[in-house]
Amino acid sequence: MFEPCYIGGWSAAEHWGLTEQIFSSLCVMTTTRPRNRKPLLRRTKFDLHTVPATHLIGLKTVWRGGTRVRLSDPARTLIDMMADPALGGGIRHVAEMLASLLHDQPKEGAKLADYAAKLGIGAVYKRLGFLLQRDHPDQIALIAACQANLSAGYAKLDPSLPADRLITVWRVWVPTNELRKAKP
């Protein structure tokens, strides 16, 4: 219905076992610009997000019944959430999903820098680098890749939250309660 598109965000995270949260809508990333971004079709709520056609990378095809469905792979799912933390239910949930990915699927973790480079969104490196340094300091190569690709300017760790502390090394504004290491 929304082609070209893929299932992403919280819906892909549920599929890949990155979260135990249950969401009431299906997150669809589409290249179209729909008028209604939250349609209800056949008793299914959709949440539509527009992405450029060049961002249709890191996708896997799965079968749901007799229907082929494209969804973002685990690493791509996390990178989408770093670009827009609302796709994962906020930065705290995104940090938990990052921990789950790095612990349960370490090979996927190696793809994070590659996808971040392909998308070219500066805030992704800032958020990812900050979270990695805070919660996963053993990810030295990934942290170095984030540091090497920092863009000019500043980003908020989570645009939906007020942020009062600037972490200059990552060029990211962080709420005070997010400075401490996340709980495992």
Q: What would you say this structure looks like, in words?
A:
With 184 residues, the protein is of the alpha/beta class. The chain contains 7 helices and 9 strands; from the N terminus they run E-H-E-E-E-E-E-H-H-H-H-H-H-E-E-E. The protein has a 4-stranded mixed sheet. Strands 7-9-8 form a 3-stranded mixed sheet, covered by helices on one side. Helix 2 (74-83) packs antiparallel against helix 3, helix 2 crosses helix 6 (122-135) and helix 6 runs antiparallel to helix 7 (140-148). It is globular and about 45 Å long. The termini are far apart.
| Secondary-structure class | alpha/beta
Radius of gyration: 16 Å
Strand content: 15-25%
Biggest sheet strand order reads: 1-2-4-3
Shape: globular
How many domains in all? Answer: 1
What is the β-strand count?
Answer: 9
Q: pLDDT below 50 for ≥5 consecutive residues: which ranges?
A: none
| First-to-last CA distance | 39 Å
The DSSP helix count reads 7
- Topology as a string of helices (H) and strands (E): EHEEEEEHHHHHHEEE
Largest sheet: 4 strands, mixed
Defining traits:
single chain, 184 residues, alpha/beta, 21% strand, globular
Q: How are the SSEs ordered, and which strands pair?
A:
Blueprint: E1 5-7, H1 9-15, E2 25-30, E3 40-41, E4 44-50, E5 59-64, E6 67-72, H2 74-83, H3 91-104, H4 106-109, H5 112-119, H6 122-135, H7 140-148, E7 155-156, E8 165-167, E9 172-174
Parallel strand pairs: 2-4, 7-9
Antiparallel strand pairs: 1-2, 3-4, 5-6, 8-9
Helix pairs in contact: 1-2, 2-3, 2-6, 6-7
